[in-house]
UniProtKB/TrEMBL annotation:
Its main location: cytoplasm. This is Methylthioribose-1-phosphate isomerase. Pathway: Amino-acid biosynthesis; L-methionine biosynthesis via salvage pathway; L-methionine from S-methyl-5-thio-alpha-D-ribose 1-phosphate: step 1/6. Its EC number is 5.3.1.23. Belongs to the eIF-2B alpha/beta/delta subunits family. MtnA subfamily. It comes from Esox lucius. Gene3D superfamilies: translation initiation factor eif-2b, domain 1, Translation initiation factor eif-2b, domain 2.
Amino acid sequence: MTLEAIRYRAGSLQILNQLLLPHETVFDEVRTVQDGYEAIKSMKVRGAPAIAIVGCLSLAVELHAGAGGNDPVTFIRESLCHLTSARPTAVNMGRAARELMEFAENESMEKTTEQLRESVIGWIEEMLERDVNDNKKIGNYGAQHILSGVPRDSVTILTHCNTGSLATAGYGTALGVVRSLHALGRLRRVYCTETRPYNQGARLTAYEAVAEGFPATLITDSMAALTMRERGITAVVVGADRVVANGDTANKIGTYQLAIAAKHHGIPFYVAAPSTSCDLSLESGRDIVIEERPAEELTSINGVPIAAQVAARVEPAGIITELGVFLPSELQAALTGRLTAL
Ligand SMILES: CSC[C@@H](O)[C@@H](O)C(=O)COP(=O)(O)O
């Protein structure tokens, strides 16, 4: 079974409102490009591939109703530009916009406006099917690769954020690898990080794991390094919002520290992403525009304030004890009385 997050038929689009999960299953109607933009911006729909698919499908629905009149190309261009601005870090929407615009401009040279609308809708509808097929291949490649290192054993995976059916047209990317391992009977357990501040791991990945029957354990983000040390993690597998030419990857906040902890523990770290998430026009990760979300997403949960409104930054330079201030390397000596603070 695979969860359904996008319901589409010609002229009609409904999306599962992921802000209400796991408590409520509500499908919202998307009738216009503006509805699509708002659903993406507010994160009713999220995950790089799903953002692009829902954005483009919202355009398909409006085109089906005749939007753009005698000049659909201008309408398509303005709509794609608007949709791309909703979540800039995930490259899939921007890339789909570029490719679709090129297609629409070519089609407009030899087709009537009605034919143009139809062929653009057809192009968009293919995105849905392509994404599911790509994800199944990612799942298969990833599972086979990970299993090649452990020929007989089951494996334990740690993943971050939500990269499953809810973040794609179906099957998932990093969670697709987990899904394939489970289907092969080789998944011992998947550890899912809660993924603060928006809790996609706790609200969405844990929900998918229960729905699909994966053996899963939810951990706080702060438990990840210890889990790597104590729980026999075979591999860390995460998704991507954008992978650039040198392999640098932008993904949900917290991915960087997982990569560092994995390296420290000698655990292989994989990024599972379709080629539509790759952006070879950028040389390094420093060129990626990183989306800044509202501070309230950290200081409240579902509108309930949970924190004082301060800006905090932690850069520990030593360990301050009642005996004095010590470097980590000095602590043992300090606590056993062999060293005194200056
Ligand atoms: C297949 S989803 C790939 C990425 O978009 C995913 O790893 C991720 O970080 C999602 O973040 P989100 O902020 O929930 O859109």
